[in-house]
Design goal:
single chain, 422 residues, alpha+beta, paralog of FGE (formylglycine-generating enzyme), six-stranded antiparallel β-sheet, elongated
Length: 422
């Protein structure tokens, strides 16, 4: 989570949460849109030649870090990295790293989380800083009063400050103006007129783009469209990074009116809705337990009129076989919810215990004397059947049936997908 603690389900809307060791961080969704990039009119007289010409850019949806990468997160991923004791504060943004250092950090982060993190493109950075589709046309990221949203030359004391302490912008992003500048993925190049979808910058160059201003920038050098550029091997005490993330193979994370994030698990032509549960180890849980419809879809069986009934009376072996088949079909690391996870989801009104429809018990299942009578009757009937050479059909031995059913679990199961893939 960011420095501003988020404690309600509503706060988690459109946010992906991650945890590396004891360090938590989150990524804010930026819905795709079209905007005018460069030195637009609200930037006023501060605009310079490198910000021009203004041009139209269209972007697909992506995620971007709510805050800059902190020293704590950097050290969690790269524990061998040395940070001077003078500036060793976990909540400060990480600085004194060049562009290549950032790539190594991201490579290790990807291997830990299994997610395709990266640096944002220059266009993605500017669109997010402007507030995305929620933009109100501010000169700085989050407002027109620079000291409210930024640590700059006037108020910083010529040093970095803990992330998330100033006012956020329209998307809930912090410090996109001031504190530290941020590396982008692009090679620096001139802007050109025209509409460009998802621009990646120049194909090659000598410098990498840096955006956002820093603690040693004055107001006139902190406006949104200001572009800076440095050689990728340069190290500055006022330059850090912010993460970006695209999920091209997982378009299912969509905001809804309910106070949650929904993820849909695809099982053949069936969509199973899972809802986000915020916790120390957040997860998605199915809105209802595994029912006959889900079970039979996974098993390849035909449906009947009881398709909505929860599945019960299955052994551990049957459940484990179902889970393996479900993983293969959905290509997702789905697991079963623990009792604590189910209780938490019920307490938050995300799911509820279903009414279980149980089959009617036969008398012999309730009464040992009935079982004995059943056996005697079956034995006599079989003797007469053998004498006249007629095969009679009798029910299975109730003792054997009870034995075969003794490892069946009467409770239903809920499907869970971990946010961190753990």
């Amino acid at each position: 989570m960011s420095a501003k603690t988020r404690s309600t389900i509503l706060d988690s809307l459109q946010v992906l949460y991650f945890q590396i060791g004891e360090v938590k961080f989150d990524m804010q969704r930026v819905d795709g849109g079209v905007f005018i990039m460069g030195g637009t009119k609200e930037q006023h007289r501060e605009v310079i030649a490198t910000d021009l010409p203004t041009h139209t850019v269209s972007l697909d949806a992506y995620y971007i870090g709510t805050t800059e990468v902190t020293q704590a997160l950097w050290k969690a991923v790269m524990p061998e990295w040395y940070v001077s004791d003078e500036w060793n504060t976990p909540t400060l943004p990480m600085t004194d790293v060049n562009w290549y250092d950032c790539q190594e950090f991201i490579r290790r982060l990807d291997s830990i989380t299994g997610m395709p993190f990266r640096l944002p493109t220059e266009a993605e950075w500017e669109f997010a800083a402007r507030g995305g589709n929620e933009s109100k046309g501010y000169r700085f990221a989050g407002g027109d009063v620079v000291d409210e949203v930024s640590w700059g030359l006037k108020n910083s004391g010529f040093r970095t400050h803990s992330v998330g302490c100033k006012k956020a912008n329209e998307l809930g992003l912090y410090d996109m103006t001031g504190n530290v500048s941020e590396w982008c993925s692009d090679w620096y190049g001139r802007f050109y007129l025209g509409t460009e979808p998802n621009p990646q910058g120049a194909k090659e160059g000598e410098w990498k783009v840096v955006r956002g201003g820093s603690f040693d920038n004055c107001k006139d050098n902190s406006y949104l469209s200001r572009r800076e550029y440095y050689a990728p091997y340069e190290v500055m005490n006022y330059c850090g990074l912010r993460l970006a993330l695209t999920l091209p193979n997982d378009p299912t994370l969509q905001p809804i009116d309910e106070p949650s994030i929904v993820k849909k698990l695809k099982i053949k032509n069936l969509r199973v809705k899972l809802r986000y549960v915020p916790s120390d180890n957040p997860y998605y849980i199915s809105e209802e337990p595994v029912n006959q419809r889900i079970w039979k879809k996974v098993k390849g069986l035909s449906l009947d009129e009881d398709w909505s009934q929860a599945v019960v009376d299955k052994s551990d072996g049957e459940w484990n076989e179902f889970l393996e088949q479900c993983r293969k079909i959905s290509h997702t690391a789905v697991i079963f919810a623990t009792e604590d996870e189910v209780h938490q989801a019920i307490a938050m009104d995300i799911t509820q215990i279903p009414a279980i429809k149980r089959r009617k018990q036969h008398r012999w299942e309730k009464d040992m004397h009935s079982i004995q009578r059943h056996r005697r009757a079956a034995s006599k009937a079989q003797k007469w059947a053998d004498l006249i050479g007629v095969e009679i059909k009798t029910t299975d031995d109730p003792i054997l049936q009870v034995y075969n059913n003794q490892d069946k679990k009467a409770s239903p199961r809920w499907l869970v997908v971990r946010v961190n893939g753990n």
